[in-house]
Specification:
about 500 residues; alpha/beta; Aldehyde Dehydrogenase, Chain A, domain 1; Aldehyde Dehydrogenase, Chain A, domain 2; 7-stranded mixed sheet; 6-stranded mixed sheet; binds NADPH dihydro-nicotinamide-adenine-dinucleotide phosphate
């Protein structure tokens, strides 16, 4: 047995008991149903987690509500210190958590899983620093005997529901600011990647977070997740997931505060004056990083007809350089796709495009002779046209669809037409053109001369207003705006200013 396999076994053995984490303890579920967690890269059974019942959800919500009063009144500097302790524990367990991420999610260990864990810790550090500087306005009063103060205060108990593509960094985008601001949390990770969440819960306990501030329940979205969303004791829901899940949750939640980070269909637009080498590298990174399973992945490239051929040649070369395989092997750029539905969606979108006349230039099918059937070839497909699924819907696979455009207005129209508006990129060497596009793209985020997959942990990230990509902002201090509300306190004073005589 290789040392590496040995290490994986050690990490699996170090996992906390596969129970629920409620009130600071690992407790049995009320349900006897379990969900199997399998590795997409080896097919091995990694664990069995409870399929939490509505009763379990109610227990977790009660625990979080019970902890809230004391936690919201804990001084912010103490809450900040707790966030730093959590970050310390995450970094102390960095290799373990990254190993679990690569095992259950499939992303390359060195290039992607380790950096994900570092960013997870960073999100707690940023929140810890930001909460100490949460300034709010003191506003002028009309009444001379009053003073008006505002405070950003915690909303209450949140249900946080997250996807499988970033098993720890996405949850931490909510947990850091949420906990720092004085909220309490019930977390439901994705069914495919709950094990990394077990380590996160362990880190919270090791950081002496008061019992009940953070709770973990595992289960399926439509059952466990729905019980959480519809529970009257939940004050806010943070969802990162597909647009149709956001739609369902919005209907089920009733009057609760919602923070919705939904799907994307990021175009990369390449103008006639672009640095084509840079644009091709960015498109390949944007489409193949995490096997294309990223909300801001490069889902389509809109390229000016005058540079289409040169760009295509370059991006095909980039695709051929991508090494696919075991996520634990050094030099591997891309692991397996995470699950069958996302794989089949990619195949469906490619079949639709081929049938309508698009041409696969490289890739286009599953890789043979791998440990599982989940490995897909890095793909470039040309002659993609607006009516195809590859253009209209989020594919979430390792595909660069190339669409040729004839003018700027056509590019802007196509970019904005799908209704998604999360992150878009524009490649040009002319700053005036860059801002011509940035001003017109209906998107929460625009990147100039880099990949659609570019983000920084503390930048405000989220859907452009009125788009299918959701609303609210994750990232740094901006998340405090969504996870707190502004409380105004009016103070009566006896104004000692002498009254003017008539
Ligand atoms: P899903 O919407 O399928 O699932 C997301 C989470 O919602 C999972 O935990 C899921 O549970 C849960 N869920 C599903 N149905 C319900 C329900 N009825 N009630 C309550 N919870 C429910 O998304 P994926 O996991 O497939 O993730 C990929 C999607 O996430 C893509 O669309 C991607 O663009 C988006 N995303 C958006 C980001 C952003 O910042 N805007 C960032 C990253 C991803 P379970 O899976 O356990 O059944």
């Amino acid at each position: 047995m290789s040392t590496f396999l040995l290490q994986r076994d050690q990490v699996l053995r170090a996992l906390p008991p596969q129970k629920l984490f409620i009130g600071g303890k690992w407790v049995d579920s009320d349900s006897s149903e379990v969900l199997e967690v399998r590795s997409p890269s080896t097919g091995e059974l990694l664990g069995k987690v409870p399929h939490a019942s509505a009763k379990d959800v109610a227990r977790a919500v009660e625990s979080a509500r019970g902890a809230w009063d004391a936690w919201r009144l804990t001084p912010p500097f103490e809450r900040a210190a707790a966030c730093h302790r959590i970050a310390d524990r995450i970094l102390a367990r960095k290799e373990q958590i990254a190993t679990i991420i690569s095992l259950e999610q499939g992303k390359p260990y060195i290039a992607e899983a380790l950096p994900e864990v570092e960013e997870t810790a960073e999100n707690f550090r940023i929140a810890a620093e930001d909460v100490k500087r949460l300034e709010t306005p003191i506003i002028p009063a009309r009444d001379p005997n009053k003073r008006l103060f505002t405070f950003k205060v915690a909303i209450g108990t949140w249900g946080i529901i997250t996807p499988w593509n970033f098993p720890t960094v996405i949850p931490s985008e909510y947990f850091g600011p949420g906990i720092a601001a004085g909220n309490t949390i019930v977390f439901k990770p994705a069914e495919q990647t709950p094990l990394a969440g077990y380590f996160l819960a362990q880190c919270m306990a090791e950081a002496d977070l008061p019992p009940g501030v953070f709770n973990l329940i595992t289960g399926l979205g439509p059952t466990t997740g729905d019980a959480l969303v519809s529970h009257p004791g939940i004050d806010g829901i943070g969802l990162t997931g597909e647009t149709h899940t956001g739609d369902t949750i919005q209907r089920r939640a009733g009057v609760k505060k919602l923070l919705m980070e939904l799907g994307g269909n990021g175009p990369q637009i390449v103008l006639e004056d672009a640095d084509l080498q840079r644009a091709a590298k960015a498109a390949a990174f944007g489409a193949y990083f995490n096997a294309g399973q990223v909300c801001c992945a490069t889902e389509r490239v809109l390229v000016d007809r005058r540079v289409h051929k040169d760009f295509l040649d370059l991006v095909v070369q980039e695709a051929k350089n991508i090494k696919v395989g075991d996520p634990f092997l050094e030099g591997v750029h891309m692991g397996p796709m995470n699950n069958l539905p996302v794989l089949e969606k990619t195949e469906r979108h490619l079949a639709d495009a081929r049938q309508r006349g698009a041409r696969v230039v490289v890739g286009g099918k599953r890789l043979a002779n791998q440990a599982t059937n989940f490995f897909f070839e890095p793909t470039v497909i040309d002659n993609v046209t607006p009516e195809m699924l590859l253009n209209n819907e989020e594919t979430f696979g390792p595909v660069v669809p190339v669409i040729t455009v004839d003018n700027y207005e056509q590019a802007i129209k196509l970019a904005n037409a799908t209704g998604y508006g999360l992150q878009m990129a524009i490649f040009t060497q002319d700053i005036d053109k860059a801002f011509y596009f940035a001003d017109r793209l209906r998107s929460g985020n625009v990147v100039i001369n880099d990949t659609t997959d570019y983000w920084e942990a503390h930048e405000p990230f989220g859907g452009g207003g009125g788009t299918k990509s959701g609303y609210g902002r994750l990232g740094g201090r901006f998340t405090f705006d969504d996870m707190t509300h502004l409380k105004t306190v009016a103070l009566h004073i006896n104004n000692l200013t002498p009254k003017r005589s008539a």
